[in-house]
């Protein structure tokens, strides 16, 4: 990927304006998700007035809003003026669809957008811009609220589903019998991997408030017998023992001493020849290409006390320090890659 070169020096201010006003596009899409425009169109196309009434829009902005979604490529409109989902919005933005990605966008609306409005302050001070993020246990605070907890779990599942499918497909699972996912959230990784590999059993490790979400998700996937939940706090408790330990989008939440502590605990919990899988929106080693990974790291700046994203080379160095005998980096999907370390 060398897309950054084509983004520079085009001789036109268009890209500068487009990025600078990127919140126009973003808010239009986020409002459409919040108002469930795509869900209302799941069954059949609707004319503008019916769609307006169903989504509760005031007449003043309705037509511009819906036609902006057409112009942005998120809706189609036929010759008779009826609106319909595009193949992508039908697939990824209808709530309840198996590949629904809107959980992440719901979290963007409620949580990330207000923090990002204060990015300059975060850059000047190094401080997160969510009131509760300054506390040691930001998750305790977020999980105290049922809605926030559910939105966050859904966001994680939606963001992780594609890299998880690749991990299920590409990692040499036949060599191992047990897997534990540290910071498992609803259990999307374990479910994806165990569905594909019938010989495996798994443990999800996460904070106690996550248990009901995990159990609901795993039950609906029909995997209750092979999967269990272990409630714990990885600061205070040892990690569960398993042949493979997974950290998905977990290390980037924390500062460097915590990252190192978690990898050390993983080493201790693994048998000889056991493996750790770390998957994230890894930054490329040159720190030039993976803009999503770099922006994710700024997201950790505004959202967490010490979190940051990192390169594959960074992670391999930490794995070596923790004692792992070898490691490798493999691209998964989109901005996500995994680092695999062997004890
Ligand atoms: C960013 S989410 C990643 C979820 C999932 N692994 C994925 O890739 O989609 C981080 C997870 O770490 C969990 N977590 C945070 N602090 C924890 C702690 N002290 N002990 C155990 N789990 C924790 C959170 O509850 C959350 O599920």
Can you summarize this structure?
The protein has 343 residues and is an alpha/beta fold. The chain has 16 helices and 10 strands.
End-to-end distance: 32 Å
Largest sheet: 7 strands, mixed
Shape: globular
- What percentage of the residues does DSSP assign to strands (E)? 5-15%
In CATH terms, what is the fold-level topology of the largest domain? Rossmann fold
Mean pLDDT: 92
Order of helices and strands: HHHHEHHEEHHHHHEHEHEEHEHHEE
CATH class of the largest domain: Alpha Beta
Low-confidence stretches at least 5 residues in length (pLDDT < 50)? none
Secondary-structure-derived class: alpha/beta
- β-strand number: 10
- CATH-level-4 superfamily name of the largest domain: Vaccinia Virus protein VP39
Count up the helices: 16
The rounded Rg comes to: 21 Å
InterPro entries: COMT-like, COMT_C, COMT_dimerisation, SAM-dependent_MTases_sf, WH-like_DNA-bd_sf, WH_DNA-bd_sf
Domain O-methyltransferase dimerisation: 21-94
Protein name: Acetylserotonin O-methyltransferase
Keywords: Methyltransferase, S-adenosyl-L-methionine, Transferase
């Amino acid at each position: 990927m060398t897309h950054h070169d084509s983004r520079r020096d085009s001789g036109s201010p268009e890209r500068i304006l487009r990025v600078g006003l990127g919140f126009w596009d973003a808010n239009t899409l986020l409002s459409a998700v919040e108002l469930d425009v795509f869900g209302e169109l799941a069954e059949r196309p609707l004319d503008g007035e019916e769609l307006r009434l169903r989504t509760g829009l005031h007449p003043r902005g309705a037509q511009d809003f819906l036609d902006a979604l057409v112009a942005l490529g998120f809706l189609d409109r036929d010759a008779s003026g009826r609106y319909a989902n595009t193949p992508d919005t039908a697939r990824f933005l209808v709530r309840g669809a198996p590949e629904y990605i809107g959980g992440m966008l719901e979290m963007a609306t409620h949580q990330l957008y207000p923090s990002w409005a204060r990015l300059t302050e975060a850059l000047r001070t190094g401080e997160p811009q969510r009131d509760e993020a300054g506390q040691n246990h930001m998750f305790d605070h977020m999980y105290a609220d049922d809605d926030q907890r559910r939105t966050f779990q859904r966001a994680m599942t939606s963001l992780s589903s594609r890299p998880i499918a690749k991990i299920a497909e590409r990692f040499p699972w036949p060599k191992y019998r047990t897997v534990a996912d540290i910071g498992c959230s609803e259990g999307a990784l374990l479910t994806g991997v165990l569905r594909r590999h019938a010989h495996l059993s798994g443990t999800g490790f996460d904070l106690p408030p996550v248990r009901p979400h995990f159990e609901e998700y795993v039950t609906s996937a029909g995997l209750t017998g092979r999967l269990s939940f272990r409630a714990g706090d990885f600061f205070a408790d040892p990690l569960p023992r398993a042949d493979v330990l997974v950290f998905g989008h977990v290390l980037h939440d924390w500062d460097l001493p915590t990252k190192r502590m978690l990898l050390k605990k993983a080493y201790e919990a693994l048998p000889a020849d056991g493996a750790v899988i770390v998957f994230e929106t890894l930054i490329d080693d040159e720190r030039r290409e993976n803009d999503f990974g770099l922006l994710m790291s700024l997201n950790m700046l505004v959202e967490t006390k010490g979190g940051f994203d990192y390169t594959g080379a960074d992670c391999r160095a930490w794995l070596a320090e923790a004692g792992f005998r070898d490691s490798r980096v493999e691209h998964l999907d989109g901005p996500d890659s995994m680092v695999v370390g062997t004890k």
